[in-house]
Amino acid sequence: MLVLFLRFSRSGWFSLDVGEGVLRILPVDSEPKLLRLDEISDDFAYPIQSSRELDRYFDKNLIAVYKYVISGVEDGCIGVYFDFGDCGFSVLESEGNLSITDGVVGASEGIALSKLEI
User: Which of 7, 42, 72, 76 lies 20 to 30 angstroms, CA to CA, from 113?
Assistant: First the structure.
């Protein structure tokens, strides 16, 4: 997974990408189309698929968003945590891939959560 598309009921669709230490959360004008790899005809073909990993967060109110940062590194973002109060999920980048994990990932030494203004 290179980009994660999320829809928030009040704000619409957003794309989330974490790479090279930078977090990008950008609004998307229209709903992303689900496409299989054989339906894409350009040189940068990546399938767009639905993920059941996030179904349990439907109808929950987003309380806050935090980014995982490496202390003392300017472009040191390695992920993001979406806080729904009683639960939440993390999206982390590792070696060019994004992964989704329930809850806050145990931060190692030098990694901290920093609240984002939403």
Answer: 7
